[in-house]
Amino acid sequence: MAEEKTIFARIIDGEIPADIVHSDDHCIAFRDINPQAPVHILVIPRKPIASLFDATPEDRELLGHLMLVVRDLALKEGLDDGFRTVLNTGAGGGQEVFHLHFHLLGKRKLTWPPG
């Protein structure tokens, strides 16, 4: 039996609409439908990597690219006073969708510890 596609794979494939704010050959970024801050964008690789646990040395450039996209989106969204980047890994780390993704959060006071 084939593995069911994640919601993120379905967004990448255009099966589910999303408010896409960035798209290139390596990744897409879109606004979270359940935002935890006024700016809450998800940055996901087109390559289906389940979690950071599943990244390989060959993914080094892709992971760096994702981080630079996060930075560029933060600047585009006016988050020059600061922002938070979150990468949940594994169920115990709060990961709900098993397709690697970075959360970009900003435009509100972000406290520590995050919870």
Characterize the structure shown.
With 115 residues, the chain is of the alpha+beta class. It has a single domain, classed as HIT family, subunit A (2-Layer Sandwich), CATH 3.30.428. It has 2 helices and 5 strands, in the order αβββαββ. A 5-stranded antiparallel sheet has the order 1-2-3-5-4, with helices on one face. The longest helix has 17 residues. It is globular and about 40 Å long.
Can you tell me the residue ranges where pLDDT is under 50 for at least 5 consecutive residues? none
How many extended strands?
5
CATH superfamily: HIT-like
Assembly form of the protein: single chain
Q: What's the architecture in CATH terms?
A: 2-Layer Sandwich
- Strands across the major sheet, in which order? 1-2-3-5-4
Specify the overall morphology: globular
Task: Count structural domains.
Answer: 1
Work out the strand percent. 15-25%
Radius of gyration, rounded? 14 Å
What is the structural class? alpha+beta
Mean pLDDT metric = 95
> With helices defined by DSSP (H or I, 4 residues minimum), what is the helix count?
2
CATH topology: HIT family, subunit A
CATH class descriptor name: Alpha Beta
Query: Helicity range of the residues?
Result: 10-25%
H/E series: HEEEHEE
**How is the main sheet built?**
5 strands, antiparallel
Distance between the termini: 37 Å
